[in-house]
Design goal:
Layout: E1 2-7, E2 21-22, H1 32-44, E3 47-54, E4 57-63, E5 73-74, H2 79-92, H3 119-123, H4 133-137, H5 145-150, H6 166-180, H7 184-196, E6 202-210, E7 213-224, H8 226-237, E8 241-242, E9 245-246, H9 250-256, E10 273-274, E11 280-281, E12 288-289, E13 302-306, E14 310-315, E15 320-326, H10 337-347
Parallel strand pairs: 2-4
Antiparallel strand pairs: 1-6, 3-4, 3-15, 5-7, 6-7, 8-9, 10-13, 11-12, 13-14, 14-15
Length: 355
């Protein structure tokens, strides 16, 4: 059997949906010449786009390789930042009980060895369910994402070890669908795309095909424009407020970008990488890397990173958001493109108090 990807339900924003407001860099305390260096660096390092916002205003936006502001990008694990907002919305609506809710309450097929799973320990990547490059590659084309998750084994107590674990993340797709009694696409449309004004975004759906038949396996990630990708970080930078209205509670936002267990990984919150610790851990083999994730950025910098270098970054203390899409970027190597790019943007900020 073979895997194929297809677009899911597309959400189109109304024509009168508010757009990002633009401003000159100097109006919000950013040195335009130094900011240009960040765009030049992005261009030289296989980027398709770079956008930078300060105080919620678009101060720089460039596209390469035939891309435009309307171009959509599959964001891979960058989707986790948007998905975290969806979880928060469902908690605040009472559809979910809270981050501590056991997953077995929603997915009754869960084997007893996985009864400890909660939204919080899965989102912290500290579920105790082991992962590795070999395990991540397991799961034939005919298996659903739920079947793959149910087969995983446990190696540690909750919050004791950090394993970047996509099967556990995808287990939450089923949990949300059953709690909300709607498809993941419909939930995302109603709770994220519509209230935040996404335009043209959709979940990419996975199918296994062969022998004249096909089966639905699950979801890959959200395909969206860089401008919409930036919205998940902007809501967090603005402590849960969107367009002057409360979208999520400040408490939930704070939990997303707070360290859960410093001994497991001081540089990961809930579905967000953090710059808070003096070290961080690799993705599949969680070895310790003794340097800050983004050495040239403030400690409150957070980000979510998708394969190839689809990244959304927020810096609350500097009221700054940036998005980079493109190819051939790692997050874990010393002097990586993401870290350098964020540092260049930070160095362009002259006056943190300007508006």
């Amino acid at each position: 059997m073979a895997n194929v990807q297809r677009p899911g339900l597309v959400y189109s924003a109304p024509a009168d949906e508010p757009k990002w407001t633009s401003a000159a860099a100097a109006e919000v305390g950013v040195n335009a010449e130094r900011l240009d260096r960040a765009f030049a660096f992005a261009c030289e390092n296989d980027s398709n786009s770079l956008i930078v916002l300060r105080y919620g205003k678009l101060i720089g936006e460039q596209y390469w390789n035939g891309n435009t502001p309307l171009s959509l990008q599959q964001t891979f694990s960058g989707t986790k930042s948007v998905f975290a907002l969806l979880i928060g919305r469902l908690i605040e609506r009472g559809v979910l009980k809270g981050l501590e809710q056991p997953i077995y309450e929603l997915v009754d097929e869960l084997p007893k060895r996985l009864n400890h799973l909660t939204f919080e320990n899965i989102m912290a990547m500290q579920s105790g369910v082991i992962n590795s490059p070999e395990i991540e590659e397991l799961g034939g084309a005919g298996e659903s994402q739920l079947e793959i998750a149910l087969a995983r084994e446990v190696e540690a107590e909750p919050f004791a070890k950090y394993y970047y674990n996509n099967p556990m993340y995808r287990l939450l797709f089923t949990a949300l669908e059953r709690a909300g009694d709607r498809s993941l696409e419909e939930l995302t449309r109603d709770e994220v795309f519509r209230p935040l004004g996404f335009d043209g975004a959709y979940w990419v759906k996975l199918y296994a095909t062969g022998d004249g038949s096909e089966s639905f396996r699950g979801y890959q990630s959200i395909c969206m424009s860089p401008r919409d990708f930036a919205k998940s970080s902007q809501v967090i930078v603005d402590r849960g407020v969107w367009n002057g209205q409360r979208y999520l509670s400040e408490l939930f936002i704070s939990r997303l970008i707070s360290v859960v267990n410093v001994d497991a990984n001081p540089s990961f919150g809930l579905f967000h990488h953090l710059n808070a610790g003096s070290y961080y851990r690799e993705r599949l083999i969680p070895q310790r890397i003794d340097r800050k994730l983004v050495p040239g950025a403030p400690d409150d910098t957070f980000l979510m990173f998708g394969a190839g270098g689809q990244v959304t970054v927020g810096i609350p203390s500097l009221h700054t958001v940036l998005v980079r899409t493109g190819n051939n970027v790692s997050l874990y190597e010393s002097g990586n493109t993401v870290a350098t790019l964020v540092e260049l943007v930070v160095n362009a900020i002259d006056d943190a108090g300007a508006r």
